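Running log. JK asked me to keep both predictions on one page so they can be read side by side. First protein, sequence followed by its tokens:
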Amino acid sequence: MRHRAQPAVKNLLYALLGAALAALPSGAASPPPAAPEVRGTWLTTTANDHIASPARTAETMRRLREIGLNSVYVETWKNGYTQYPSRVLEDLIGVDRRPDLAKQDPSDPDKPMPARDLLEETLIEAHRNGLAYIAWFEYGFMAAHKDTDNHLRKIRPDWLSRDIEGNEIAPNGFVWLNPLHPETRRFLLDIVLEAVDLYDLDGVQLDDRIVWPYVTMGYDDYTVAVYRNEHGGAAPPEDHTDPDWIAWRSEKITDYARQFVAELREARPGLIVSVSPAPYPWVYENYCLNWPLWAEEGLWDEYIPQCYRYSFEAFEPTWISQTELMTSGEARVSQLIAGVLTTGSRPDPVPWADLERKIDLVRSTGGGGHVWWFSRGVLDEYPDEITELYGVSELGPARRPDLPRGWRRPSIAMVFEDGRWTTPRVPEARYRVIVHDGEKWSYLPDGVLKTEPVTGNMLRASVDPASVDASLRVEGEARGWRTVELLIDRREDTLRPRRVRR
């Protein structure tokens, strides 16, 4: 097969290049830069402590960059609550984010957990370290774990999907919002668009929960009424595996996917719009999801199938079968990013030798990169091995192929002198000021600054016109600040003005 021969050719070319470079006089050539690819990992509050506190978040983002990653996919919507203050959520259920003491799933700690703006906290730390940040709306249409009686489940039972017996808990152990109901569709879109408005995101991702809740679900009153209206009064088939019944539900999900992407494109045309489905055709047979059709239509920017297989022998046919789906219409194999399992339900992690072969296979088939499931495998199991795999010390970091070089430059530290926070020769750009109070970073109110005079509530910025790169001097109240830094702000590059619905 063609894909088996390519690694050998690639290795031969690398060997010839290495020999040529070795023959040059010392200092005459630099090693080739790392090839662009997505190198990411998912970060969740479940089953690890990597973003359990501001200090841990800071350490995590620093280590991920040192290891050689260029992207983080951070949990933003989980078990019926946003992980950031949301007016949309508050208007619906009376709380604006995950509340104090809320236990979201069985693995969460029993100790009190303060309400946080986890999105802002992780976003600042990711961007301080030059990492692209994809807001991962992990739960999608999932409303709650079966053992979680949250606000959403109690307040809007009419939004829930049900099976033919009227049960609201799907075989996967979760309670789901009905993906056909116009109010649930609007709600999910509004919390995503709200985050896009308020935060300097590089992208947005929906997981394998932008699907039908399960092939057994869809017998709630609303769905049955819509089906009857479109089928001359006939009820949905009692056989949930009926091919036409699966196809009908699949088409409804695809209709929503089109709406979702179109509204995001309108709000921020340059945003990376990502989806991470389960492999096809299993996901169609069990969740009525036909994501290869989405790729053919050119809907999303990247597709990250969750090829969660422990052995390389199981991973190889799964990955190859997904690449074969990306050959028609607008689909490109380069848009396909491998979701690679490092550790999961088994006590032992996936053997490193298998992981290395998986990454080699993805590269040899023209895939656009990989995302490790999940950060525990990167930080706790194989940090040294992944660092060596990436060759960071020799090649430097790899950029994402879908973002320009220098898109996320690390933060610029300021120095406090003579009552001013100052930094010389700042490259011309649009910045936000971030301040550290000894516990965590936060954005300064009205803190978007350009390299031109701007007046804010707390700071005044001025530009030295004699400086080629623009020397930005900031003065103002500094009580309680330990550190002040500037972060480049990319919202203006990709965002058209749009206001969140109130």
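And the second, directly underneath as requested:
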Amino acid sequence: MTDPLERGLAVLRAMAAGEPCRPSDLTRATGMARSTVDRVLATLVAAGFASPSGPDRSVRLTPRVLTIGNTYLSGSGIPDALGPEVRELAEALDESVSLAVADGTAVRFVTQLPRRRSRSLTFRVGDLVPAERCAAGALLAAEWTEAGWARWRTGSPETVVAPDVAGEQAFRDRAAEALARGHARDDQLIEPGLIAIAVPVRFQGRAACAVSVVSHGSRHSVESLADLALPHLDTARMEHLLAAHRPAPPSPIDIPGDTPVQSLARGLAVLTALGGTLSEIAEATGLARATARRALLTLVELGYAGRSGNRFVARPKVLELGYARLSSLSLGEIATPHLTALAGAVGESASVAVLDGTDIRYVARAMAYKIMSVDVTVGTRFPAYATSMGRVLLAEDADLGGTARLTPHTVTDPVALRALIRQARADGFAIVNDELEEGLRALAVPIHDRAGQVVAAVNVATTRQVRPGLLAHLQATALAVETDLALVTERTAPRLA
């Protein structure tokens, strides 16, 4: 690998495979020199795609990496155009529904709407599945040329596992049957018990994606699932929606100009600006046309970008850069690195909690080493009315539950409590002194979701006086969590638990 952008993407792929990663791990995984890995990591950290994660110099991907995958998901138009339709389908059928696209000779999921079951799907947006092991793959393989079949046999760069060459004829038969029927059937190909029915959605004469309805053998046979699902799978309507959809223009992110490997930083900027012409991408990134062109040619060669007329568009392969794992992060996982930084900055333990009935429940915590500390762990519950986080989480008319006097200072009068809750909403923070436990003081601020709704709170609890400047630290932490939460939940449901 001689191109800096190629080296940077190789490191991102290696980090996506498992993290946090130490530089020595990445050196072995990529075959690069340690000095090269160090320079790449420094650039990724400067660009906001990676963050230090421990005293052993380990690093982790940050949710900002999701902007790369979202470039494809927005640019393709498939999730945006068909997402509402498949959501309604999942509700109507009470079964899991997914959208998948071809990625080389494999299949990559771009939308997942699972139903809660004792046995449920574990696939995520961005996950890759061998084409021969799913109904969507048979539909997409029905359009392969002999060159496509040859590529499948030899194993393309996107291949997850070695292809089942011995089963090629059976796979060809399933693809031919899917073409003749207009739909494909998956009878426990992905894993025992799971069955699926899939139909193609075409754009400009070719299958742009496949819509799959997935169930379990304990609920349906393949035949009964087909009888249930096919009348609801209105492909003509979906094709009309896809053809009429106009993808939003890309929103490239700002990449610092002064980085250890500037050509990598420029290439990453181009990667998040895919979707326009060369001139448009150069203008959006502030790069010279020649610089943007070099990055685009590298991305095309590596399979992360393709040409559509005179436009350069993102390809599904960009989703391999950590999208599946990062888009499924829980609130606790998102918040923990920021809490660790906060605890280190203020010298006090920091926590994030959500409202659970009339209690708050801790979902993330970072401890600061002290002789005297508050003994709280993830999962701990406290009555919301007596805590700083509860005061910013509760609505003014919320059920307060039983308001027992926990200390001589605990406010228990419902009228007074509702006034404090109202004041916390107006101020944007809450302070509680000696109400949960004598000698314990806490300051909390809210955390908002993409729609601006309060969904969690972050606080610092101390046995000392609340110091000046602590509120600013908490507000900065809340904003950092909100930024990452917005990225993670742009196309997936939030996991607040």
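Observation for JK regarding the second prediction: The mean pLDDT is 90.
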